[in-house]
């Protein structure tokens, strides 16, 4: 048992604590006998807690200091753990609803925590420090109130202050600490504060100090695995993001049902023109349903459905896409034979209002843009209904890969993605999509790929066929091969 097998660590922790206090007591400082006694009681209590919680082998805590509903990889971890008989406690913010599979699973329990705000007066550094301190206490109490876990599996970033708190709880309770490195938190902070900002430098030191203390490490690319080994002294296992089975091409009937529901809220999905006398026909901008036979077909003159998703943060510059759409509009007005576009950009985030204002100022005639927030169950259905995906994710570290592209490929949806260092591990230029560097190149790619739309014998159809024939592992098999052995290792 992990809890029983780490008695020596508890004794060491108790000994260190006592040794720190003893010199002060001997020197006649304000450290009193009660303080030394308190240290002894703390050490003995730690031992008691760890011996009490013997049956921890089938309990795992999945920890996210972010929104669970927007953390699909950690939701997949929880589902995989539950499928292998683990009782899973998922801790994180609950701003957006997680997937129904997570909510329905009896072996998964969600413990929501509130996002902490620091003191709202005075310098920003005071607000930041108080936020970190309060979050430390909050997280420590939540983790210590839980039954002991065999492992705590934590997403990083965000990792401040979670890594230190989770490591401390693992040390106290004899649990194994596992970090799933999605990126480096300090590189994300540097996007808004600059690389030399004191808070960024502190965050970098923090990750470098506490990261190597984990018992096991996972990461999302081989490039990150190599960097962790060379620059951090961390041995990690690459667990590529893989699409779960919910990401697949969407049948026509499901496409129509989704388009019809979206049309109730978003006019971009509504059918244009009169439908007088067509009481037995139900239309959307993309599809037609014959109500007498319940058969669905795609409209021959439908617009192309372009889809992107984002968290509306600094590492995605959506002005690139908006400028490309303006150029695409110019191609059509200049006489090019191209379809109209409906561009759907899903997601929530801090810069959404900023980009909404830019979108509203465009006044495009042949390109319609909408920015819905979709339920977790609707997102894969829309991906499987789209004609082309666009990804504007530029890794702050140059070492992570966009999960949205993984999901698109699971739906056999070709993608145009902005270039960064390790993107080649996922997007194969001219095989499953195209890679661009600026808005002009993206506009030319849209023009080229959609020039034969909706025919399926052009480059867009070729990319889709390549995705159908080269489907790799799904998430479950990938997880079983790479993560399960870490959890069952002695």
From TrEMBL:
GO terms for molecular function: chitobiosyldiphosphodolichol beta-mannosyltransferase activity. This is Chitobiosyldiphosphodolichol beta-mannosyltransferase. Residues 1-22 form the signal peptide. It holds the Pfam family Glycos_transf_1. The gene is alg1. GO terms for cellular component: endoplasmic reticulum membrane. Keywords: Endoplasmic reticulum, Glycosyltransferase, Membrane, Phosphoprotein, Signal, Signal-anchor, Transferase, Transmembrane, Transmembrane helix. Its EC number is 2.4.1.142. It comes from the Eukaryota. It comes from Dicentrarchus labrax (European seabass). CDD domains: GT33_ALG1-like (cd03816). Pathway: Protein modification; protein glycosylation. It is a single-pass membrane protein. SUPFAM superfamilies: UDP-Glycosyltransferase/glycogen phosphorylase. Residues 300-452 form the Glycosyl transferase family domain. Mannosyltransferase that operates in the biosynthetic pathway of dolichol-linked oligosaccharides, the glycan precursors employed in protein asparagine (N)-glycosylation. The assembly of dolichol-linked oligosaccharides begins on the cytosolic side of the endoplasmic reticulum membrane and finishes in its lumen. The sequential addition of sugars to dolichol pyrophosphate produces dolichol-linked oligosaccharides containing fourteen sugars, including two GlcNAcs, nine mannoses and three glucoses. Residues 78-237 form the Glycosyltransferase subfamily 4-like N-terminal domain. It is found in: Endoplasmic reticulum membrane.
């Amino acid at each position: 048992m992990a809890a029983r097998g780490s008695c020596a660590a508890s004794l060491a922790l108790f000994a260190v604590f006592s040794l720190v206090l003893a010199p002060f007591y001997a020197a006649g400082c304000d450290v009193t006998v009660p303080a030394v006694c308190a240290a002894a009681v703390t050490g003995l209590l730690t031992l008691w807690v760890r011996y009490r919680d013997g049956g921890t082998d089938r309990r795992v805590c999945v920890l996210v200091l972010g929104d669970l509903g927007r953390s699909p990889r950690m939701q997949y971890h929880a589902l995989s753990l539950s499928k292998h008989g683990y009782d899973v406690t998922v801790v994180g913010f609950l701003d957006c609803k997680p997937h129904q599979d997570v909510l329905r699973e009896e072996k998964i329990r969600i413990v929501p925590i509130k996002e902490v705000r620091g003191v709202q007066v005075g310098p920003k550094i005071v607000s930041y420090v108080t936020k970190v301190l309060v979050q430390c206490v909050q997280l420590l109490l939540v983790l210590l109130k839980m039954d002991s876990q065999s492992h705590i599996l934590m997403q990083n970033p965000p990792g401040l202050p979670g890594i230190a708190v989770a490591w401390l709880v693992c040390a106290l309770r004899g649990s194994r600490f596992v970090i799933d490195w999605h990126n480096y938190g300090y590189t994300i902070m540097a996007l808004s504060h600059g690389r030399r900002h004191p808070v960024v430098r502190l965050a970098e030191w923090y990750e470098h100090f506490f990261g190597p203390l984990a018992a096991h490490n996972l990461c999302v690319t081989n490039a990150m695995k190599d960097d962790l080994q060379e620059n951090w002294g961390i041995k990690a296992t690459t667990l590529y993001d893989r699409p779960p089975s919910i990401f697949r091409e969407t049948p026509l009937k499901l496409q129509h049902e989704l388009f019809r529901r979206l049309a109730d809220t978003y006019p971009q999905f509504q059918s244009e023109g009169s439908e007088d006398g067509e009481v037995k026909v139900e239309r959307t901008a993309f599809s037609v349903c014959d109500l007498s036979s319940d058969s669905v077909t795609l409209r021959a003159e439908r617009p192309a459905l372009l889809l992107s998703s984002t968290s509306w943060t600094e590492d995605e510059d959506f002005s690139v896409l908006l400028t490309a759409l303006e150029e695409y509009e110019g191609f059509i007005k200049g006489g090019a034979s191209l379809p109209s576009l409906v561009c759907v950009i899903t997601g929530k985030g801090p810069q959404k209002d900023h980009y909404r204002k830019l979108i509203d100022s465009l006044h495009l005639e042949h390109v319609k843009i909408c920015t819905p927030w979709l339920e977790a169950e609707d997102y894969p259905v829309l991906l499987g209904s789209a004609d082309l995906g666009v990804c504007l994710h530029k890794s702050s570290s140059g070492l992570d890969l966009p999960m949205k592209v993984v999901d698109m490929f699971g739906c056999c949806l070709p993608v145009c993605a902005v270039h960064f260092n390790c993107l080649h591990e996922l997007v194969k230029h001219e095989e499953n999509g195209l890679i661009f560097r600026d808005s002009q190149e993206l506009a030319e790619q849209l023009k080229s790929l959609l020039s034969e739309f909706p025919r399926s014998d052009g480059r867009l159809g070729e990319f889709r066929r390549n995705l159908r024939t080269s489907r790799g592992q799904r998430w479950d098999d990938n997880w079983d091969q790479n993560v399960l052995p870490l959890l069952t290792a002695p």
